[in-house]
Amino acid sequence: MSDERVASGSPYEQTVGFSRAVRTGRHVYVSGTAPIWPDGHVDPDPLVQARRCWEIALDALARLGGSAGDAVRTRTYLTDRRYEGPASQAHGEVFADVRPASTMLVVVGMLDPRWVVEVELDAVLPDPPDQPGQTTASTGA
């Protein structure tokens, strides 16, 4: 089984040498995702940043066959405790019904000082449907 990788166009992907997300089997790992718009702009509003982070992360997950409902763990990094409310709101908008394991941390700073929020997620995709002609072992009782 080979790994699948997706890029998001971040200028750091090439220079640092990482993928936005990697799928290995049913597991998907989405790298730290910052709130950058395609033109390089970063909105200063923490809620807008958090929503943008999840938009990018979920797009990478979708490109590897997953959705928010497949998330099993999320991490949110904040540069200040006062951003907890907006970050929590954005997380709840996406994951209220999913309820993955989640961690929120306050860190000293981000790579770019305009970023006040960064996120990561891990997902486990559903088992593929049985192929015609395949049999499934039963543990029947």
Automatic annotation (TrEMBL):
<dbReference type="Pfam" id="PF01042">
    <property type="entry name" value="Ribonuc_L-PSP"/>
</dbReference>
<dbReference type="InterPro" id="IPR035959">
    <property type="entry name" value="RutC-like_sf"/>
</dbReference>
<protein>
    <submittedName>
        <fullName>RidA family protein</fullName>
    </submittedName>
</protein>
<dbReference type="InterPro" id="IPR006175">
    <property type="entry name" value="YjgF/YER057c/UK114"/>
</dbReference>
